[in-house]
Amino acid sequence: MSETSDEYWMRYALQLAHRAREQGEVPVGAVLVQHDQVIGEGWNRPIEQHDPTAHAEMMALRQGGKVLENYRLLDTTLYVTLEPCIMCAGAIVHSRIGRLVFGARDEKTGAAGSLVDILGHPGMNHQVRVEHGVLAEECAATLSDFFRMRRAQKRAQRQALRAAQANQP
């Protein structure tokens, strides 16, 4: 795939991340592509779905499996705005994704080289080609802006609570 194509699909994943943000979820988006066709897409939804596994990648993989009617997602590329966690990296290996492209690194939970390298571990029975840094600044800014907004909301809530308590007799 060319850099232009990777940027196109990462922008698609960023649009999905914005959906997550609009729903109050951590803004991560993922799109699964086979032969320049979307076969799966997802955005973070663990809060809405009350499901700790409802990460963007998992949603895209589930949809892709249904479209292909197979749990093996051969000859596909998964584009994700944030480096996958350990759970998602395991699912990527098990589904036999050919290529992973992600935007921002995740130093706290990233499993494609930042915290650990599940995808590059030599003992894995499937090796995934990994590329990172595609639209990394935009992907990271989307996350930073979200967490900055969330911290401001929490501060405002605490101040409102203090004000309400101060006004009680």
UniProtKB/TrEMBL annotation:
SUPFAM superfamilies linked to this entry: Cytidine deaminase-like
Cofactor note: Binds 1 zinc ion per subunit.
Enzyme class, broadest EC rank: hydrolase
Active site: 57 (proton donor)
EC number: 3.5.4.33
Any GO molecular function: tRNA-specific adenosine-34 deaminase activity
Swiss-Prot/TrEMBL GO biological process terms: tRNA wobble adenosine to inosine editing
Catalytic activity: adenosine(34) in tRNA + H2O + H(+) = inosine(34) in tRNA + NH4(+)
InterPro entries for the chain: APOBEC/CMP_deaminase_Zn-bd, CMP_dCMP_dom, Cytidine_deaminase-like, tRNA_aden_deaminase
Protein name: tRNA-specific adenosine deaminase
Organism of derivation: Pantoea alhagi
Lineage: Bacteria, Pseudomonadati, Pseudomonadota, Gammaproteobacteria, Enterobacterales
Underlying gene: tadA
